[in-house]
Design the sequence.
């Protein structure tokens, strides 16, 4: 049995995105390989979330191409997952929410119960398995969203401002969970405008401003001295 | 003193009506039972058609969708006598479905009420599911759900508000008179339901039975609405 070929690298070639007559993404080209945790950083309105959705296939670029190393068949397991700023929980138990993703991925019923339970264990949510997902706290819901994504054993995990709505305690727990998932070899691609979160989680920074990639740098170098004027101003906490 | 006499008549009728209800008068029980049987069956049929239809319109984008929604909403105000007339024409001996021989039977009444209630259930289901879809769409697509999976997931997740819709449809069916009058014929002991009996007994001047049935009907509609409210409230607390 051969391991299936890796999805990565992800190639984004000259991608533009327009909505309502506005250019939100202007000619972005990036290649993202396995390993390093990539954080797409930039001020609000830079087009970060749109770029992430284009990568994940939720939005189609107006022009340009998004290609994976291997093409993904329609339907079935996607090998990539996304966690949103506001987690969307189904009106059922925490365990059933995780199992739901596995069902869509085509996993057999008996298998998915066990797998979902394991994912909850891994994220420290085992004690909440039987609780209704939508009445959990914001931090618990976000960790549950991570468990739902994690259960799918994705090669790539996209994260869109996963801690923007959380208090510091919950933020810490969610970031720890993200770091753990990254440590297992899952490629982390995260969008944030939060410098603290970027510093704590990023191996490399892609700095996005007004729909363009201004620089892509190793995280430590970026925070010591960004190459672009805009990024320097952003790191200094100036308003862009 | 015509006013005093009128009050006395009503008081007397109300008293006799109460006796009929408390004493489970066989005529009254039979009429109420038939009303339930006909309207419940009609609502089951209407739900089997209307709920998936509403979900499909909510989730699938197709040309002419706006027109379908406008027509569906317009059908909410469908006059029951017109539905009765159309079903009458279909089922009458010379009509296309005449050979079935079900005109002036409870089956014909079920058909007419089902046609009356299907647009109601479909239109309200479409609204509820479209609102939920707006919240769930990205998450479900991210997990790889196709339109059919998305629609069935939303039907289940909206189950409590849809229950209210279905109960509302039952209220409409059990309280309508025009359609069952035309296709049922108000035959004593065969197709006489609460509304047609009230119509007849009032015109005959037999106020106690008419009032008794009226009280049952109003209590029923009240109880249905109370049930819908309580269920939704409890579900909200339990599932969020």
Sequence:
């Amino acid at each position: 049995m051969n391991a299936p070929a890796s999805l990565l690298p992800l190639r984004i070639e000259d991608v533009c995105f327009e909505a309502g007559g506005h250019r939100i993404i202007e000619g972005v080209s990036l290649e993202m390989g396995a390993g390093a945790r990539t954080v797409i950083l930039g001020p609000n309105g830079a087009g970060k979330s749109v770029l992430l959705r284009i990568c994940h296939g939720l939005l189609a670029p107006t022009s340009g191409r998004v290609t994976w190393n291997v093409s993904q068949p329609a339907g079935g397991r996607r090998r990539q997952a996304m966690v949103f700023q506001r987690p969307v929980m189904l009106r059922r138990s925490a365990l059933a929410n995780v199992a739901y993703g596995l069902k869509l991925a085509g996993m057999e019923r008996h298998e998915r119960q066990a797998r979902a339970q394991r994912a909850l264990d891994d994220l420290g949510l085992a004690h909440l398995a039987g609780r209704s997902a939508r009445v959990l706290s914001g931090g618990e819901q976000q960790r549950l969203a991570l468990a739902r994504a994690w259960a799918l054993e994705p090669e790539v995990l996209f994260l869109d401002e996963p801690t923007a709505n959380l208090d510091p305690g919950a933020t810490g727990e969610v970031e720890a969970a993200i770091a753990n998932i990254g440590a297992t070899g899952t490629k982390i691609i995260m969008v944030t405008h939060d410098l603290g979160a970027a510093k704590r989680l990023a191996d490399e920074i892609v700095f996005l401003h007004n729909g363009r990639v201004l620089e892509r740098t190793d995280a430590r170098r970026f925070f010591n001295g960004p190459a672009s004027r805009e990024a320097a101003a952003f790191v200094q906490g100036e308003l862009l | 003193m015509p006013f005093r006499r009128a009050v006395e008549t009503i008081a007397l009728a109300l008293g006799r009506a109460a006796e009929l209800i408390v004493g489970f008068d066989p005529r009254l029980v039979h009429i109420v039972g038939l009303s339930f049987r006909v309207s419940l069956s009609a609502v089951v049929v209407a739900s089997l058609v209307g709920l998936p239809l509403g979900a499909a319109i909510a989730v699938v984008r197709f040309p002419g969708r706006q027109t379908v929604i406008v027509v569906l909403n317009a059908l909410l105000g469908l006059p029951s006598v017109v539905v009765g007339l159309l079903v009458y024409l279909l089922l009458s001996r010379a009509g296309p479905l005449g050979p079935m021989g079900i005109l002036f039977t409870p089956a014909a009444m079920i058909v007419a009420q089902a046609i009356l209630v299907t647009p109601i259930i479909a239109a309200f289901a479409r609204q509820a599911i479209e609102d939920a879809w707006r919240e769930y769409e990205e998450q479900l697509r991210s997990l790889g759900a196709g339109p059919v999976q998305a629609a069935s997931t939303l039907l289940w997740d909206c189950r409590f508000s849809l229950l209210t819709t279905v109960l509302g449809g039952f209220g409409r069916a059990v309280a309508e008179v025009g359609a069952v009058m035309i296709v049922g014929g108000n035959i004593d002991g065969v197709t006489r339901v609460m509304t047609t009996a009230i119509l007849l007994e009032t015109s005959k001047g037999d106020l106690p039975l008419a009032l008794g049935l009226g009280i049952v009907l109003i209590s029923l509609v009240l109880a249905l609405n109370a049930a819908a409210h309580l269920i939704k409230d409890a579900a909200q607390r339990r599932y969020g």
